[in-house]
Amino acid sequence: MFRSEYADVPPVDLPIHEAVLGRAAEFGDLPALVDGTDGTTLSYAQIDRFHRRVAAALAEAGVRKGDVLALHSPNTIAFPTAFYAATRAGATVTTVHPLATAEEFAKQLGDSGARWIITVSPLLGAARRAAELAGGVKEIFVCDSASGHRSLTDMLATTAPEPDVAIDPAEDVAALPYSSGTTGLPKGVMLTHRQIATNLDQLAPAVTAGPGDRILAVLPFFHIYGLTALMNAPLRQGATVVVLPRFDLETFLAAIQNHRITGLYVAPPIVLALAKHPAVARYDLSSLRYVISAAAPLDASLAAACAARLDLPPVGQAYGMTELSPGTHVVPLTAMREAPPGTVGKLIAGTEMRIVSLDDPDQDLPAGEPGEILIRGPQVMKGYLGRPDATAAMIDPDGWLHTGDVGHVDADGWLFVVDRVKELIKYKGFQVAPAELEALLLTHPGIADAAVIGDLDDQGTEVPHAFVVRQPTAPDLGEGEIALFVGERVAPYKRVRKVTFVDAVPRAASGKILRRELRKNP
């Protein structure tokens, strides 16, 4: 068993809005949220006042403790107000992908039992249709403005009293994000106020922030990574969050330059762009002090290339999953130069880990040997909503959550994640990690992006199948050249046996490769 080097943290028994905004009065007129495109700014005093007024309006509308409210929006400076208002009114917030189809949205509404929706006017059509399909939705509010719907601005004018809801942080669910579905159907992940708030305390010693720090929020708030790293954590500590609704490279780079961003939390595709795209050279990114990548494996050489280009310490990584509120590992900001290349960090405070054999889950493995990563700590989810069997399959009777990720720990406690158990390719009995081949493919100068899955050949053997995006400068790059490039650099059983050229690698908003989409590719 591996334990954190940090001192344990006591459970944070506060509602999430109090855990995050409890110091808002202290931070007062400091900028809390800035629209990265037009510069609109909300101070800490304003977000505190606004979320309390919107909570009062929600309660006046009929929102009660135990209700589920669906927050369906891209990143905006109104998103945190809507989230904290809903939890202060006693609701559980289920965050919805803004690009979900009406049918997908309706499934989430039905599964979560959501009775209220907050959306934005450009997405109102999908929200209305989803509400019709699901039934049971009482009212749809909008963050901006739309005819026939109350807006958050309208709700600020309410004279209703602020709700005084008795919340049990240990039991009451604050957030109900849905797992990404990269390996199965999405499931509602029940995260209590205590689990999310305690995870913030667990992360704080390793990833410090405060007044004067400026964090760029381009990864989505609806995803647990963005919700924690880009919303809850910085707002809890008095930092300024500059918000972008989506990733566009030029807009992203301009925001770093114009708003003097000090810290980036990104996913590997953004690291790839920072390392390789020619547009980066046109912007002044000198305000940056660090970059942290998470949500998917990041190759060490790509991390080094990004850091070298930006003249920064090596890109740090973090590790976790929605079911873990989400963090368990991070490379501390103070150790980014000392951390070994490719590590996802060390255990955060109050967290335990086991590495168990892939063949015998009762067998614990020592440092240096790869196996499945098991986690135990106060951040482990309450469970999957309405799915006790799936919960029991994920969390064993001793409280260990089986991540499905393969990794190993070195002698100093640094964790290295190799791949997903379910994504390992079994070639004639040998295990091949797609992430390893993907990292190798990205070193080819003619490849812009790549993904690898297991596929069956004519003999029914599972073989590595690469999906490759050519660089514009390499339109003639062929399958043979790629197969030779990989074959010269890996053991024979790891060679790529199939290559398909695609325009883009399908990814979730978090940056994870959607391998199930690739499996649909003929």
Can you put this structure into words, describing what you see?
The longest helix has 18 residues. Helix 11 crosses helix 12. This protein has 522 residues and is α/β, with parallel strands linked by helices. The protein folds into 3 domains: 184 residues, Rossmann fold; 174 residues, 3-Layer(aba) Sandwich (Rossmann fold); 97 residues, 2-Layer Sandwich (GMP Synthetase, Chain A, domain 3). The chain is built from 16 helices and 26 strands. Strand 22 and strand 23 form a beta hairpin. The two termini are 44 Å apart.
CATH class call of the largest domain: Alpha Beta
Cα(first) to Cα(last) distance is 44 Å
Please name the CATH topology of the largest domain. Answer: Rossmann fold
Give me the CATH architecture of the largest domain, please.
Answer: 3-Layer(aba) Sandwich
Tally of individual domains: 3
Can you summarize the main beta sheet? 9 strands, mixed
**Overall geometry:** globular
Number of E-state strands: 26
What would you say about this model in short?
With 522 residues, the protein is of the alpha/beta class. The protein has 16 helices and 26 strands. Helices cover 29% and strands 23% of the residues.
Keywords:
522 residues; alpha/beta; Rossmann fold; 9-stranded mixed β-sheet; 16 helices; 26 strands; globular
